[in-house]
Amino acid sequence: MRIVRRSADRGHVDAGWLDSRHTFSFGHYHDPAWMGFGPLRVINEDRVAPGGGFPPHRHANMEILSYVISGALAHRDSTGSSGVLRPGELQWMSAGSGIEHSEYNGSDAEPVHFLQIWIMPDRGDLPPAYAQRAFDPARRQGRWATLASPDGELGSLAIRQQAWLRGVRLGDGERVVHALDPARLYWLHVAQGGAVVDGQALAAGDAIGLTGEGGELQLAGRPGEPADLLLFDLPP
């Protein structure tokens, strides 16, 4: 089965300093038809104004990934971890038994545009943890790169779930495929640009979810719209 989630149909919150689009139910946006996809619980596309940010707040038992599209995202948490995330970098925070953190724009002059992603862990109440890693965009151009995985394979970030996050960048004329296991769930999110997926045109913010499908997923770049795509490979 295949479902399409169009960018324009997502939930929307405009708080002045924050403009956020919610793929799944989150905060004041609630839609029983869109509560998540397997263990993938949140994909929020956030734009935070210069000087803005999320004040300290607490989470527990959630794997939280942040992926910056443009600008700089600053992080601080109760374990003493801190950092600034820029395009091409991925941040992982495992809330574990409980963590307090804040995320805010690392610039007083430029907005930050990023994806906030939540994945439910496969085990709970472990010590909280944090890491971030840079991934050379050139190594994802026209080919898949593993960004997160259960065991940190190929230099990826290790997360507490039997899930993989892979990324690819596609220019005009570039094509990639990905083998599908019908026992797994797949969620493909277009972070930037546009692409054609199995003959279907997708724009930035669009997504496709696949369940019970085998064969191959075929992706192609579109003229004038270099694409940045994220593929979540998830347990049912």
Automatic annotation (TrEMBL):
<dbReference type="Pfam" id="PF02678">
    <property type="entry name" value="Pirin"/>
</dbReference>
<dbReference type="InterPro" id="IPR011051">
    <property type="entry name" value="RmlC_Cupin_sf"/>
</dbReference>
<comment type="similarity">
    <text>Belongs to the pirin family.</text>
</comment>
<feature type="domain" description="Pirin N-terminal">
    <location>
        <begin position="12"/>
        <end position="119"/>
    </location>
</feature>
<protein>
    <submittedName>
        <fullName>Pirin family protein</fullName>
    </submittedName>
</protein>
<dbReference type="InterPro" id="IPR014710">
    <property type="entry name" value="RmlC-like_jellyroll"/>
</dbReference>
<feature type="domain" description="Quercetin 2,3-dioxygenase C-terminal cupin">
    <location>
        <begin position="147"/>
        <end position="234"/>
    </location>
</feature>
<dbReference type="InterPro" id="IPR041602">
    <property type="entry name" value="Quercetinase_C"/>
</dbReference>
<dbReference type="InterPro" id="IPR012093">
    <property type="entry name" value="Pirin"/>
</dbReference>
<dbReference type="InterPro" id="IPR003829">
    <property type="entry name" value="Pirin_N_dom"/>
</dbReference>
<dbReference type="Pfam" id="PF17954">
    <property type="entry name" value="Pirin_C_2"/>
</dbReference>
